[in-house]
Amino acid sequence: MKIAVLPGDGIGTEIVAEAVKVLNVLGLPLEMETALVGGAAYEAYGHPLPEATLKLAKESDAILFGAVGDWKYDKLDRPLRPEQAILGLRKNLGLFANFRPAICYEQLVGASSLKPELISGLDILIIRELTGDIYFGQPRGRRTATDGHFPGAEEAFDTMRYSRPEIERIAHVAFQAARKRSKRVTSVDKANVLETFQFWKDVVTEVGLQYPDVELDHMYVDNAAMQLVKAPKRFDVVVTGNMFGDILSDEASMLTGSIGMLPSASLNASNQGLYEPSHGSAPDIAGKGIANPLATILSAAMMLRFSLNQEASALRIEAAVQKVLAQGLRTADIYSDGTTRVSTREMGDAVVKVL
Ligand code: IPM
Ligand code: MG
What we know:
Elements: E1 2-8, H1 12-24, E2 31-34, H2 39-45, H3 51-59, E3 62-67, H4 83-93, E4 97-103, H5 116-119, E5 123-129, H6 164-179, E6 184-189, H7 195-208, E7 215-220, H8 221-230, E8 237-240, H9 242-255, E9 263-267, E10 273-277, H10 294-306, H11 311-326, E11 329-330, E12 340-341, H12 344-354
Parallel strand pairs: 1-2, 1-3, 3-10, 5-8, 6-7, 6-8, 11-12
Antiparallel strand pairs: 4-5, 4-9, 9-10
The structure holds 3-isopropylmalic acid and magnesium ion (MG).
Residues 246, 250 line the site of magnesium ion.
């Protein structure tokens, strides 16, 4: 089983190192190869997604990804910015189905900014379409300068677009995921204003006819943003487009106490996948050894489950994470009185020890 390890920028290297440590104690025949991506790759090769990195990713069964980005690259021409690496990987590998679970761990109920009764037992799965929408619309703008900015320009634009097959395939993913859960799907759109999302709603409804056992409802994105903080447990599987999914998944992640806890998976049609924490590169705390590695460790568990067919090992990792939380170990982002504050490495070591 071949894994491309792409730590990236900021806290990416620290957190991925802990996940690799965890993978190494499972006794599985894993072949891991590391490559540069994002700002780190730009520094070394002048491109955020060098040919060699893309080739390694394509040849691997799965990609373990850290995070990319740093404010210091804000002046670069857009195609050279670190974020283009993750967008390029998604597009080139056809990773259209993004799973972003938001699960509230019982031990962390107090870490959320919402009242415990609102989030205790929360288990939402956001399914975000990842290779279409306004993220990949053409044309992408009208630039007057080469540094990605628009001095003196009169307008800029991005086009929102979805094709029928793109919506159909993500709708199938959502209905099938719902069948394994509580058989409810909420499709989030903006059909009251945008043609693209009236079309989205129509196509999801059509696909839904093939899943009579799954209950489907529709919600406008603004209302969904409100309901997520008002009554988050009303949701089970949420399916939405690339842009709305980007925003709602960040919102949902904070319901659980910390974005530092949440893994994600991005899959293509042949279950090849990219696995990354839901959070970003956090340059402000990079190198301090305080980042929470659990989202990345849990992403490694998702990788074993979805792309490598190692459910038992995935469950072992998830149980080990529960156990270190039960031991009271906390990185700074989830620390509260009465718990033990640990570093990035100590948290990884604790998971390894349990395993
Ligand atoms: C995410 C990130 C990315 C996105 C950025 C880094 C391009 O915010 O994975 O949610 O917008 O998709
Ligand atoms: Mg995002």
